[in-house]
Structure formats: structure tokens, C-alpha cells
Amino acid sequence: MRTEQPQVIYLKDYQAPEYLIDETHLTFELFEDHTLVHAQLVMRRNPARGAGLPPLVLDGQQLELLRAALDDRELQAADYQLDGDSLTVQPQAEHFTLDTSVKIHPESNTALEGLYKSGKMFCTQCEAEGFRKITYYLDRPDVMSSFTTTVIAEQHRYPVLLSNGNPTGSGPAEDGRHWATWEDPFKKPAYLFALVAGDLWCVEDTFTRQSGRDVLLRIYVEPENLDKCDHAMVSLKKSMRWDEEVYGREYDLDIFMIVAVNDFNMGAMENKGLNIFNSSCVLARAETATDAAHQRVEGVVAHEYFHNWSGNRVTCRDWFQLSLKEGFTVFRDAEFSADMNSRTVKRIEDVAYLRTHQFAEDAGPMAHPVRPDSFIEISNFYTLTVYEKGAEVVRMVRTLLGADGFRKGSDLYFERHDGQAVTTDDFIKAMEDANGVDFTQFKRWYSQAGTPRLEVSEAYDAAAQTYSLTFRQSCPPTPDKAEKLPFVIPVELGLLDAAGNDLPLQLAGEGAATAAEPATSRVLSVTEAEQTFTFQGIQAKPLPSLLRGFSAPVKLSFPYDRDQLMFLMQHDSDGFNRWEAGQQLAVQVLQELIGQHQRGEALKLDQRLITALGTVLGNPSLDPAMVAEMLSLPGEAYLTEISQVADVDAIHAAREFARQQIAEQLFDALWARYQAHREASRSTAYVASAEHFARRSLQNIALSYLMLSGKPHVLEATLEQFEHCDNMTERLTALAVLVNSPFQAERAKALEAFAEHFKDNPLVMDQWFSVQAASTLPGGLARVKALMQHPAFTLKNPNKVRALIGAFAGQNLVNFHAADGSGYRFLADLVIELNALNPQIASRQLAPLTRWRKYDEARQALMKGELERILASGELSSDVYEVVSKSLA
Ligand code: TRP
Ligand code: ZN
Predict the structure, then answer these.
(1) Are residues 284 and 402 in the same domain?
(2) Percentage of residues in the chain having pLDDT higher than 90
(3) Which of 190, 182, 194 is nearest to 121 (CA)?
(4) What CATH number does the domain containing 612 carry?
(5) CA 771/CA 92 separation, integer angstroms
(6) Distance of alpha carbon 522 from alpha carbon 625, whole angstroms
(7) What is the pLDDT confidence band of residue 4, given thresholds at 50, 70 and 90?
(8) Residue 345: its pLDDT value, please?
(9) Which of 83, 418, 542, 888 is most buried as measured by Cβ atoms within 10 A of its Cβ?
């Protein structure tokens, strides 16, 4: 907990370390009521910092120092200084060895950072600054060391003892205990250290590398989960193959291990050779995990595996560079998932997520550049901006360089910096050097916060047969009050003729066509505050298709009318933009309904939306997953994000009205599709493949519309699906549909049957909590409070907190934003309680309250009041303090 004024850390203050650690030798003695950690650090003065021997300041928190020795000299109390964050000693020579022994308490560590217990097993989470809760160390990513780790524990309770690298020995010890030693030959920063001890079983496989050598693959789980590892194993092997083929990157140790733990603050962690995963990101089988969960497992397994190169072999110099590894790795895993499944659908999902959540972050009090300039608590900077916007920045690099140029750049980056701790500038420099380009201006994407706006206008000159597009870019102010200079915005576009065909694109001044036809889709680089591009040889006024594939993370506006959007929905050759046109049409129609609701008028839906969706639904040649995406109206959170002042009730009423109209007017088409797809599901066994995902996604969105009709045969169909399906995707959808329906008796019965059947599977129970927490029927808060008393719920498990509290505050907007402020009070109480248990989780759950500026004055006052109450509640963790104080500033 924070005792003094929290310190702000600045990027501009970065200095290389005074000392280096060449070798780290650790011995852990695990006991039920404490753990002893003995560390021997082989150290030397950092030659880059010049002569002299300044004091050595080691990071350490919540450690009880038992002994310290410098070379062979035992240190007395007068020989060192200790405070709550550090141990300071005075080296006597350029090369020396430091020995320490400390006592720690993993058994009572509820923050889940450092060494802690998840259920009956010991595990670690060291990123970003958790290693300092294990031993005194230079806990910063530019200090890279080899590690040897010995773990000693009771044989019976902890038969499996793991750490990074290769196993080099094991054997029995006294008192029913045993030991194992692991050696990691690759130098790494402490944040990649891992240790696991428990009664674990494993699923095993091998992967044969391009070079012909085998790697042993193991996924460790508690015995009851052995039957849920196959999907992760298949995903791992696909990831290894893909990184060889697409990036030329081979795995570098002879063993790769994944361990699944139930209590974990994030999704997973890329510790060298020993990835530790939230069980939600490993375990998946048809009966217990949805299609979305299967895809998440595939994506997260890939993400952590890809870190072995983008993160571990080449790591970050300091935590301001976090996006160096995270943005790049998210981009890599997104491309992997696109290759394994449907590319367009993956892009749609990612963009919808970015625009709803990252854009909101970038417009709020916690807005920061992809490479932040300062922070109080680094755990607060594992953000959508660093991850998702960071990935968009890497995607733009590839768009500007082309696939081959990008590969040349990444080859140079890995070759040049292997074994180093580097910066985002080094990444860009490799891209520049490999391609002979200058990205000086492009790098503003790393240093300037905020989402750029790009306003586009057109002019057609019939006499000259030219068509001009003028782009005006601007970036709204962010809390740093920094001046914003123009970004480099790659805009991929096409021009459609009256028949919907793409026109050949030739800019004025470009030489007459060579032998080849000019391209029909091309990337323009917008680099000025205002810039015009003129196309020549355009015989009639075209319709532009702008920002194809969402080629830059900007808010683009062009004055399309609804008929033009319907035309693009049908004819655009870019699948992403067909969906985008549908979304823009829906936004226009919904905003009109929101206005009607606010003026107290009867709601009247523009029929063109129904016509457009009916056309999509009736087109058998479209990918069903695309149909499902197009049928999904923009979410309430997105409608909130694009509002000046969000009217929660009007947004909800408008969207529900539109859904009801769609359900009624397209009932027959939806019903036909539903029945055909349900029949296909009934007659084929579950497969986790893109084609099956697609079929079920359309089936399920159709069902959720159909149930709005309240017709008895739809209820019957829902119950049939709920009871007789063979997979969690269909079962959970049926449950969610019932939970949101007026059929009280059926709802209660289904919820009870589901809980009874799955009570021993915590991940499935998370789904059961979420579905209820997200239900927008009145009385949401009371339901959530009641569910908190359920025996399967605990605040100590982050997945449970996310499933119930996160789903309520993030997805159940009408209930959370109840006008009496009850939702806000509830969340603030929880944050205060969580602050003492798990600061990282407390801080993340706070996010909805930080968006107070989006709402009407009455709600603003209530939300601010709760933030102030949190601030005054006592000793706050640096995590919660930073978010609350910045939100109120
Ligand atoms: N590096 C992890 C990832 O792949 C992030 C992570 C896992 C993390 N656990 C954490 C970050 C705990 C902070 C705290 O994305
Ligand atoms: Zn990552």
C-alpha cells in the first residue's frame, strides 16, 4: 500500500543500470506457512556507466531479509540499508557475488503477483515488477541474466517442480521432500522468470522444427482437466509452424511447457520455456467451452508462443517500451488467427473491439501514447492502447512497406537485436534500414495520444474527368495537453462505378498506364493536416470506398447517405467495408431513433435498414459468419463512445426497438436460417473449425432475434437446443436467450439445471454468472448482489470478478447506470474491497467509473462522488490511486 506521495516515473529519466547480473542462482524452499528464497547473484559494474563503484540499490518488496553476504563477507546491519522498496549495499570490487536469503509468504499472497498459491499449487507472475516480491534484485528488463533454479518441496503435495529452461537434475531430500534443478541458457530479464510446484498432470506431444530437431511439448493441468488440453496443443503446434513459415522463427529450447492455473490476473504469461496461463485461455472442449473460447485459446496460445521471439529473445529496454513486444505480438497473433480462420471476420471483430474500447480509453482521463512518457504504476499500462492500438501501428508499418518489405524489416530487427533489450525506435529503425525509408513522421503514432479524426470530402469535375478527395486530419486534446502534429495515415481505398465495379486508380500526374492495368485498390499516405488527391480518367462521379480493411486507427467521416451505404454493403469488393457500410447505416438509423426517444416521439425505424439486412440474410452465397456480423447492430458501448453526451436509456430503448423490428419483419427468413443451421448442428458432431464457427454464429444470432417475438414455437426450439445440443456454444446461447426472455419459469429451470450440471467446472460457472450479470431486464443490481452470495463466487478469483462484476459494469449499461447511482456505489464499494486484496484487479474494474465525462450532469456528479469516496477511503494501492486521481484531475 502507498505510504508516501506516489512517485511518477518518466521515460526522459531513463539511465542504464549501474550494475549487471551475469548469473542468477536461486534456491526455493517451499513450505505451507512460508517460503525461503536463497539467491546468489554474480554481478559486475556496468562498463557503460564508467568508473567508480556507486552504491548498489536492489529492488525488493514484502521480503523479510534473513542474511546477506558480499563475496564471502557476511553483512551486518550497519553494512546495508533497507527500506520498504529496496536493499542498498556497497560493492568493493568491479566483480562480486551477492548472496541473500529472504522469507516470503506465497500462501497469503492475494495480489497474485510474485510467488503465490493458486488452489493447491505454487506459481509465479513476475511481469512487470513482481520479481522484487520474490528476492532482492535489479528488477528491470534491461538487466538480463542466465538463471539456475532449484526448487525443494514436499514430494507428496508437489510431485511436479518446474522452472525455465532445461531440467538438469532432481532427487529426494529429507523429511519427505524432493528437489529439482532447471537451467535456462538464454539470458533474460527477471520478469520472464517462472516457477511452478504442484500435483499436476500433463498432456505431451512433440513438434519437429524446420531444422529437423524435435521439441517436447507439455501442457500441465490439474488431473480433472486432462481431457481439455487437445485444442491448446493443436493450437501450439500450428503457432510453431506458422512462425517458421511467416517470420522464419524457430523455437530455441528442447522443451516448451504451458501450465494452467485458475487464479490469474491476466490471460497468460510468456515466461521463457514455461508459459503460465489463466485456465480460461488453455482449457477447451466442445461440451464446456464456447466457439469464442476456442478461438481465444488458439489466439492466446499463439500470442504467448510468439513472444518467445517478440519479447523474450528481443526484449524491452524499459517498461515505456511495452508496446514493442505487446503491439507487435498482438499484430502477429491477429494475423495467425486470420490465417487459421476467416480473415475478414477476424478483422471485423478486432476493429469493433478497438473502436468500442480503445477509442474510449483514448478519449478519457487515462489516455496515453502507445509509448507512454510517464507512469505511477506500470501495471496500469497494460492497456488497450499499448496492446491493440500498438498492433494497429505495426499493421500500418506493414501496409506502408508491403508484406515483403515488412518481412525484410522484421528479419533485420531479430538479427540485429537478438539477446538485447531495445526500444520502439530500434524496431522502426530496422524497418527503415531494411527498406531505405524514413519513418520520422510516422513515429508520432508512438508519441502522440488520442484518436485522429479524418474528414473526407469529394469533388467531381465532369469536364476534366477528375475526382478529388480532400482529407483533413485533426487530433482532439488529451490530458497531457500536448500539441498534436499531423500523423502519417495510410488510407486504403477504391472507387466504385454505378454498377458497383472497382475503377482503375490513377492519380493526376502519374504516367499513363504501363502495360499492366492500374490497381483498383491502393494505399494513399495522408501526411498533411489537409491534403487533396486527384484521380484522373474518371468518366462519371464514383462512390468512394474509404479506409478499406480499416487501414488506420482513425475516426473517418464522409457524408454518405443511406442509399449509398446500402450500395456499398452490396457491392464493395472489400469485405470489411461491406460490413462497415452496414454499421454506418445502422448507426445513422439508431441515432435517429435515439433522437426520437429523447424528444418523446413514437419510434419509427427507417425501413432501409430492414431491407438491407433482409438482402444480406437472403443471400446464400455469403459466408454465414459475415451474415452474422452484419446482423449484429452496433453495441450500446459503441453507441455510447460515439455520443457527445451518452443517453444510456435512449440508447438502450432505441437499440432494443430496432432489434424488435428486425425480429418481427425478418422473422421468416431468420426462422428458416435458424432451422437449417440447427439441423446441421444436430446431424454433425462438434468441430472447432472456421466453417462450423460460422454456421453456429448465424444460428445463434438468429435465435436471439427470434426469441424477441415471444412465439411459443421459438421457446420450444430454444429449449430443444438447450437440452439436446452437444456443445457449449449452442447451450450457452440458448441459456442467454432464456435469461433475457419473459419466460420466467423456463429461465429459472434452465439456470438451475445448468448450474447443477456444471457446478464443478469453474470456467463454465463463470459463463453462468456472466450471462445473468449482463441481462438488461430490470433489477440487475439485485441479481448481481444475490449471485455474489452463491457458493461458487469469490472475490479472490479474478475470473469470477470479471464474470460477474465486470460483465455487469461493462455490458449491462442500463442497470449499471441506474439514475439513482446504485450501480456506481456498488462498484466503488467493490473497488475499495478489492484494493486490499488485489490492486491490479481493483484498478481494472474501475474503468467504467473513469468515463464519467460521457454522461449527463446528474450521473457525472454521482460517478465523481464515488471516485472521491474511493480516494478518501484509506490507504490506496498505487494502482487504484493512479487511476482515481487521474480520473478526477
Ligand atoms: N505479457 C503478458 C501478455 O502476454 C501480460 C501479462 C500477463 C501481465 N500477466 C500479467 C501483465 C500480470 C501485468 C500483470 O500479454
Ligand atoms: Zn503479450
Answers:
(1) no
(2) 98
(3) 194
(4) 1.25.50.10
(5) 62
(6) 27
(7) low
(8) 98
(9) 542
Give domain status of residue 815, yes or no. Answer: no
Q: Within 386-535, where are the H helices?
A: 390-417, 424-435, 444-447
Average pLDDT over residues 793-812: 98
Q: Is 266 in the pocket of ligand 1 (CB under 6 A)?
A: yes
For residue 684, the SS3 value is coil
Average pLDDT over residues 483-498: 98
The domain total for the chain is 4
- How far is it, in rounded angstroms, from Cα 176 to Cα 617? 66
Structural domain span for residue 256: 7-306
- pLDDT at residue 336, rounded to an integer: 99
Cα(139)–Cα(144) distance, integer angstroms: 10
**Separation of CA 379 and ligand 1 centre (Å):** 9
Establish if 765 belongs to a structural domain: no
Calculate the dihedral angle through the C-alpha atoms of 663, 664, 669, 675, rounding to the nearest 10 degrees: 70
Q: How confident is the model at residue 1 (pLDDT cuts 50, 70, 90)?
A: low
CB count in 10 Å sphere of residue 625: 23
Residues 85 and 60: their CA atoms lie apart, in Å, by 5
pLDDT in tens, 126-162: 999 999 999 999 999 999 999 999 999 999 999 999 9
Question: How many angstroms does the Cα of residue 266 sit away from the middle of ligand 1?
Answer: 6
Within 13 Å, how many C-alpha atoms sit on residue 240's CB side? Answer: 24
Which residues have beta carbons under 5 A from ligand 2 (an ion)?
326, 329
**Residue 2, pLDDT above cutoff 60:** no
* CB neighbour list of residue 595: distance below 8 Å, 6 or more residues apart: none
Residue 734: asked if its preceding bond is cis (omega within 30°), the reply is no
On the 0-12 / 13-18 / 19+ scale of CB atoms within 10 A, 482 is middle
Rounded CA-CA distance 184/181 in Å is 10
Those residues whose C-beta lies under 8 Å from the C-beta of residue 509, and which sit 6 or more positions away, are none
Q: Is the distance from the beta carbon of residue 128 to the nearest atom of ligand 1 less than 6 Å? A: yes
Does residue 296 sit in the same domain as residue 423?
A: no
Q: Give the residue whose CA is nearest to atom 2 of ligand 1.
A: 269
For the Cβ of 270 lying below 6 angstroms from any atom of ligand 1, the answer is yes
Band the pLDDT of 517: cuts 50, 70, 90: confident
Asked whether the predicted pLDDT for residue 72 surpasses 70, the reply is yes
Same domain, 688 and 580: yes
> What is the pLDDT, as a whole number, of residue 518?
87
Residue 233 near residue 217 (C-beta atoms within 8 A): yes
Catalytic annotation on 304?
Answer: yes
Mean pLDDT of the chain: 98
**Which residue of the set 127, 298, 304, 492 is catalytic?**
304
Q: Which ranges constitute the DSSP H helices of 540-689?
A: 562-571, 575-598, 607-617, 624-631, 636-641, 648-665, 667-683
Q: Which atom of ligand 1 is nearest to the CA of 268?
A: 7
> How far is 294 from 549, CA to CA, in rounded Å?
25
Pocket test for ligand 1, best of 125, 139, 261, 266 (most atoms within 8 A of CB): 266
Amino acid code (one letter) for 56? L
Claim: this prediction has a pTM higher than 0.90: yes
Q: Is the CB of 123 under 6 A from ligand 1?
A: no
Q: In terms of domains, do 401 and 457 share one?
A: no
Mean pLDDT of 266-279: 99
Q: Which of 667, 686, 708 is the last residue of a domain?
A: 708
